[in-house]
Amino acid sequence: MTKPSVALSVWRTINTDRFLVGTPHYPEHVDESYWDNDARRMAEAGFNVARLGEFAWHIFEPREGTFDFDLFDRAIEGLGHHGLKTILCAPTATPPRWLTVKHPEILRVDGNGRSMSHGSRQHADTSSPVLRDYSRKITRAMAQHYRENPNVIGWQTDNELNTSMPESYSPSALKEFQAYLQETYKTIDRLNFASGGDFWATAYDDFDQIVFPLDFAPTFPSPGHMQDYHRFLAFSTTRFQHDQVEILRATNSDWFVFHNLGGLRDIDFRGQFSEDLDFVVYDIYPLLYDKFQRIGNHAKIQALHLDICRGFSGNYVVPEQQSGFGAQQGFCTLTPEQGEMRRMAMSSVARGADGVMFFRWRPAHFGAEIYWMGVIYHDDVARHRYDEARRFATEMTALKDKILGTWVHMDVGIAGSDFDNQEAHKTFPIGLPSPQDDAVLLHQYCYDRGKACGFIHPEDDLSRLKVFYVPHWVTWKDGWTERLEAFARNGGTVIIVARTGTRDENNHVIRETAPGSSLSALTGVRVKDFGRLAALGANGLFTTMTRSGGLVIPPVWPAESNRRVRRFTVGNQELDAGYFYENLSINADVEAIGVWSNRYAEGTPVITSRTLGKGRVLYVGTYLTAELTHQLATRTFADADVVPLVPDLPDGVEVTLRESGERRLLFLQNIKDTTATVAGVPSGGNLLDGDKATSGTLTLEGYGCAIIELN
């Protein structure tokens, strides 16, 4: 593998001729008498790689400046003896105790002033100059030691950066935050303007006066100040990683370098963070997301998560793919049923994975994850999970030349992957769904109907799409408008929704009539009035504010007659609006395809359409609901030639298309445990069934999968 020269793009494939399949492995957790049998069984399962060392700093450097590589040298040699290569990790997510004793100033501090404690992970602050110095030392020592080891083929930087806790409010972090702002703004006057210093006397005389934007200290901070703090966290994370990448690349240019993302917090994926890497990789735990997000079945959530991740920089590898149930002391996921582990891994490949590693080889017998299950059980027995992993590895190895080099087909693109918009919403949400929350409705609509949908940044290549949807991006760049205009003129359909473009890069509300001059020119609309609405089914807006020893404002529930429900018509359908309304004025060349139908705004446009070249631009002056999503899709997808990948897709079957030139691979997975019959399958050969010809009807067993190479 070599570092790619192409720009970050949802269409980017990984430059590799090997489908990485294997497992994270922790030889330090078991007696050495187990090692050879572990390596032998991995090889017999068809694995070609193992990931080692991400939490072993205390072993690699048991005392400051004293390095000991013996344990991992023997483990890597043993794996290599059975034909498995190793991906090593910079072990900086778990600084050893000698370091936190000597330098307690590297520990993170939360918003209440509580210093994090040794005994967990990610307890040290990546913005700390001291931690950065020690991170460089351990990375350099490991890189130098393994620079000529033929069994080490690549590296992972740190581990799941910012997953446990991205924030730190330590004295060290404050100095770094102040230095970041000085470098960014150059003068204190520019900083004061950007952060709104004339509101509540929050202006500073010098950069060393700047404080952290703490919540309820005693009230709310400036949105601009909060935005800059999270930009700083993203900057610090990128800088911390860059230190490691520089060392690794200078030591051995043949190594590939990646980072495994977990929680996706406070990282700007469209910048240097991803550009530094050969590819970005994502840890996938579908049953964990189902527990926390509660938006539907775990297969649908896995698809959403993967599509969001692919929008950052294209194809990826999954270094941690769920095998059994996962647990820490505070939670436990459900358990994949027999056949489901392979099905979930196949879904990862269908949505852009060019490699999959099952987490983990064997579960730990001690520590905070003793019930985070692996391929092998606690009793060292290989059961059905091992069989599923072996089947999957055999299939992917055999099909690597078909799969590698293909990207995921999309007809519908949802604007995503923009750090500033993600954070801008968080700084002042006013009870509204985030852009991603809104996008979920459209993504799930397409998923359920087998329509090719994903996430893509407006600076990416839009030419392969048919529809581009912008979900309430409050900050907007004029250059994006130009790209959307070109997309529409060439036949694309653009859908822009309420509040887009209403704040500037400083998180200030714009001084023009919304949605701003460039978007008004594109859409032909202006917002005359706007306001909040209750969510559908709610009894009204209310606020509860509670502080220790402070004021409590109880909920106020309006009577039913005072709920002020806003309704609008689209065609012959009348729908209730949720969350937000805008009353629009429109240009002469704009058609109102939806109007408010009650209260004072009756007859005022809410949804508009403007023909532009071969395509058109729609503007929606409210938030999506399930009913509105259906109406919009019904009115736009057919005209835009957005059709299902498989007609009449049965409930419980997931479909995705990967392609490159004339090569087209249709992935089908049955997410249920009962047999499914799929009609209307295009003709081709099922690569998972001996290239057996298919055309018309295909039967999938419970959790069954098919890859159809289309004719």
TrEMBL record:
A Pfam family assignment: Glyco_hydro_42C
Keyword list, A-Z: Glycosidase, Hydrolase, Metal-binding, Zinc
Gene3D superfamilies in the record: 3.40.50.880, Glycosidases, Golgi alpha-mannosidase II
Domain Beta-galactosidase C-terminal positions: 652-709
Catalytic activity line of the entry: Hydrolysis of terminal non-reducing beta-D-galactose residues in beta-D-galactosides
Lineage top rank: taxon: Bacteria
Domain Beta-galactosidase trimerisation: 446-642
InterPro entries per the UniProt record, alphabetical: Beta_galactosidase_C, Beta_galactosidase_Trimer, Class_I_gatase-like, GH, Glyco_hydro_42, Glyco_hydro_42_N, Glyco_hydro_b
Domain Glycoside hydrolase family 42 N-terminal: 26-398
GO molecular function (one): beta-galactosidase activity
E.C. number: 3.2.1.23
Keyword Transferase part of the UniProt annotation: no
Cross-referenced PANTHER family: BETA-GALACTOSIDASE GANA (PTHR36447), BETA-GALACTOSIDASE YESZ (PTHR36447:SF2)
UniProt record similarity statement: Belongs to the glycosyl hydrolase 42 family.
Protein name (Swiss-Prot/TrEMBL): Beta-galactosidase
Organism name: Pararhizobium capsulatum DSM 1112
